[in-house]
Structures are given as structure tokens and as C-alpha cells.
Write a sequence for this structure.
């Protein structure tokens, strides 16, 4: 998937609430890159399963995923599922609960990965998720693995939900995150793990701006291949 000329691929993985989406979005703006939120694609097909009342392991869901059209607009801020804007619907607790079960189905992953690689071939990109550094873009120019304590991640998610007027408690969000972490890291296909050549960034006590500056600095100074120390 290596692209010609000066096109750059930045891949970033990490668990829910590690700061990946916020950081990747800001880096995309700062460095003028395409932004790919791979989790949004798994969320969109999970919404499809809910809407069509198909269990995650129902083979009909695989056919439906093959036939559906997922597209990003507004540089990754808006996601269209069969031309309908589902950007808000994919962030509900119902989708949060089911998404890891849908994302562990290998045939569904295969379809989504192909789509992500096609998007990645279009130009310079920053892509984030669970398997971007290991499976989707194993030859990325820069790889990062973002992490934070479970409590910190739960606090961030709770703030996101509250900002959308969705009711939740810290305990419930933390339990949901733990469960999703467990499923994402232990699944058979493409489990979440730090790639051997990824730079590990612990965001627990860091301001988002500092993380953005660090990552932008590494990429702008082309330290990806040489620098293996964390931040
Ligand atoms: O990143 P986000 O929390 O939106 O991802 C939602 C879920 O989608 C994850 O918990 C995981 O189950 C799945 N996912 C995945 N591979 C990716 C991105 C997300 O399996 N690359």
C-alpha cells in the first residue's frame, strides 16, 4: 500500500478514550491530511445490524455490509451510510454495547479493511483505530499507540456523552470500556495491540495540545523510523 511521491501515511491505534480521535483530527488539520476514523465504519455497520434486527453473527449481516455504501465527508467529520448522515446515531450506548461483537467477525473486517486501504491510497492520511498500525497500514510511515488509564478514559467518554446530553454514570462507562477493551484485545482476528514499531504515547496526565505537538513534531522531523521511545 506504499504510495508514490511524497504521500504520507500516519497510523494510530489505541483503546477507547485514549485520545486517538481528537489527536488525529487535530493532526489532520495541522498537517493538511485526510482523516480516517476507522471505528466510525465499524459503528456504522453495527447501526445497520441494529436497524435491520440482525444479530452480529448472522451471515445476512455480512451480505448487507458488502452491499452497503459507507462514505466520509467534511474530512471525516460526517459519515454517510447508504447516503444517510449517521454521525450522531453511531455514538449511542446501544452501538457502544454491540460494536465489538460486530467488529470481531472476520468477513466484516475484511470488507472494511479493503475500504480503508482504498481510502488510504487516495492521498496523505492519518488513520486511527485498533488495527491500523498492524493490519491496515503495516507499512505506514509513522505509527503511534495511544493509551491512558481506564479511569481517565472513562472520564473522557463520560464528558463526551454529557456534551451530547446522553445520561450515563462514570461506573457504567468504565464497565463498558473494560468490557470493550477485553473483547478488542482478546479477539482472534486483528486484536488491539501495539505494533512493534509503534511509538507508545501515554496520554493519562497530558494535555491534548502537548500530545498533538509531540506527534506533529515526530512526523514533521521524520523521526518515525528512528524514534522508538515513548512520550
Ligand atoms: O474507536 P471507536 O471506539 O469508535 O471504535 C469502536 C469499536 O470498533 C471498537 O471498540 C472496536 O471493537 C471496533 N474497531 C475495530 N477496529 C478498528 C476500529 C474500531 O475493531 N480499527
Amino acid at each position: 500500500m506504499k504510495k508514490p511521491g511524497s504521500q504520507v501515511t500516519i497510523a494510530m491505534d489505541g483503546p477507547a478514550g485514549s485520545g486517538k480521535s481528537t489527536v488525529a483530527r487535530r493532526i489532520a488539520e495541522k498537517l493538511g491530511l485526510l482523516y480516517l476514523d476507522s471505528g466510525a465504519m465499524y459503528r456504522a455497520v453495527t447501526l445497520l445490524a441494529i436497524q435491520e434486527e440482525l444479530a452480529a453473527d448472522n451471515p445476512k449481516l455480512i451480505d448487507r455490509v458488502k452491499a452497503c455504501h459507507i462514505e466520509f465527508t467534511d474530512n471525516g467529520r460526517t459519515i454517510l451510510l447508504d447516503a444517510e448522515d449517521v454521525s450522531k446515531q453511531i455514538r449511542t450506548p446501544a452501538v457502544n454495547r454491540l460494536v465489538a461483537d460486530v467488529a470481531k467477525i472476520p468477513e466484516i473486517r475484511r470488507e472494511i479493511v479493503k475500504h480503508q486501504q482504498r481510502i488510504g491510497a487516495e492521498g496523505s492520511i492519518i488513520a486511527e483505530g485498533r488495527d491500523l498500525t498492524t493490519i491496515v497500514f503495516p507499512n505506514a510511515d509513522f505509527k503511534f499507540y495511544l493509551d491512558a488509564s481506564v479511569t481517565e478514559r472513562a472520564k473522557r467518554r463520560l464528558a463526551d456523552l454529557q456534551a451530547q446530553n446522553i445520561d450515563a454514570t462514570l461506573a457504567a462507562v468504565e464497565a463498558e470500556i473494560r468490557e470493550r477493551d477485553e473483547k478488542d484485545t482478546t479477539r482472534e482476528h486483528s486484536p488491539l495491540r501495539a505494533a512493534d514499531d509503534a511509538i507508545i504515547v501515554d496520554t493519562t496526565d497530558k494535555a491534548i495540545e502537548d500530545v498533538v505537538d509531540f506527534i506533529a513534531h515526530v512526523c514533521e522531523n521524520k523521526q518515525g523510523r528512528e524514534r522508538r521511545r515513548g512520550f
User: Anything to note?
Assistant: The first helix runs from residue 20 to 31. The beta strands are 9-13, 34-37, 70-73, 78-81, 84-85, 125-129, 142-147, 199-202. The pocket of cytidine-5'-monophosphate is lined by residues 16, 38-39, 42-43, 99-100, 103, 129-132, 180, 184 (CB under 6 Å).
